[in-house]
Every structure is written in C-alpha cells, then in structure tokens.
Amino acid sequence: MVRKYQSLTVAAATLLVATALPNLAQAQYYGNTSPNARIAAAFGTLEGKGLVIANANFVQGMASGFTTQFDVNAGGTTEYGFIGGTARMGFRQADNGYFGLVGSASHINRDNGQYGYLGAEAQMHFGNFSVDGLIGYELWDDNDGEIMGAVTASMYITDNMRLYAGYRYIADNNTYAAGMEFRPNAYSDRGMTLFADARFQDTDDVSIMGGVRFSFNGQRTLKQENRNDFVNNNLFIDELLPR
User: Fold this and answer.
1) What dihedral do alpha carbons 196, 164, 122, 73 form, nearest 10°?
2) Which residues are paired to 125 by β-bridges?
3) Whole-prediction pTM value?
4) How many whole angstroms separate alpha carbon 92 and alpha carbon 104?
5) Could you give all domains of the chain from N- to C-terminal order, each with its CATH number?
C-alpha cells in the first residue's frame, strides 16, 4: 500500500512539472528584482507535546522571471529542538505558474534526526484553484535514499482566504495535510496573515498548529503573495513527524 501511494505521488508531481514547463517556456519574462521577506510564528502540538515554530522566508525576484528563495525554520517541542533550511531557484510566470529546483536540510535533536532532499517543484494556477507539486530524492540518517514527493491543492474562497489539502510521501511515511490561511482586510496593508495547519499519518501521529505571519511587502492580497512572491512547499512539519 505504501508503494502504491508513493507511485501515485510521484506520478502526480511529475505530471504537474511536465505540464508547467511548456507554459513557462512560452512566458514573457519581464522580471522584477524587488525582494520580499516574511516571518511567522506558530504554536501547537506534535504527538501530544507542545510545539513552537519560527519561520522566515526571503525572496529575490517576484512576479515573472527568475527568482530565488531562502527559508529558515527553527523551534522545539517540550522534548527536543530543531532547525532547518531550504533554498530554491526557478522561473515564474505571474498568475500562471512556477518551475524550479529545491534543496533542503534539517537537524532534529533526537534519534533519526537528520533529513535532506534535492528535487524539482512546480505550481500551476487555474482561476481560484492552485496545485503545487514536488518530486525529489531524499536522504535521512543512515538510510538509503529514495524518491519522495508532495502534492497540495488550494482553493481561494476570496483573494484573502485560502483552503488547502495535500499528501506527502516522506521517509517511507504517508502524511496528509489540511489547513487554511486568512488575511483580515483591516490588516492587508500590513501583510498580516492568520493560519492553521494539521498533519496526520497512518500511524495516528498528529500535528496541529496555528499562528500568524507578516509580509514586508504590503498592499498585496494573500493570493497575489502566494502566487507571485513565494513558493509555499514547506515540508518541515512533515519531517518532524515520526519515521
């Protein structure tokens, strides 16, 4: 059953990447070298233990054209701490899609605490609907590497409210994700977003958290920021779940 899920994830992520490439190849790249950054803090529970996470993202190049992005995650539970980083580079066509390469590494201060992957990822947007996919090769601790993947579908109820659900195959585990993001209109010019996220595994391990995020480039809707500024494939919580 695990291999079946793995095959479906790889197939879905590969299809998304293959679909994105022709569209991006025909894009008119006018480029925007303006940077943007955002920070976030979240609180919740992981396997019944208290969880605190801080996250920071920096991107150089928004809208259409070449872009680079760097993410840092750090925090801890009541039993251990963790830190991780992700680097991305790729091409984006504004309000249409994105394709790029990604590398990530993390250290969790516990047994089986080293994890990293290299891969390719893509986004495609259709009206108020978006699909994100990632396919890569992972390594963790002393285990032999293997294929990993993630797929997330998002629906924008309004330009400032996003609902999403997804599936990840990471470190031989099936993980299911669901959550929401909401940017209150009264704080849209300050880039404030409230969010909630839940992750579930077949083994009944659960992560639930909620938090707040601030973007330093105001005057943008949540949909504009997610589609034209940042790549949102953050798999750090999935790495924290037992393996």
Assistant:
1) 10
2) 130
3) 0.83
4) 20
5) 2-240 (2.40.160.40)
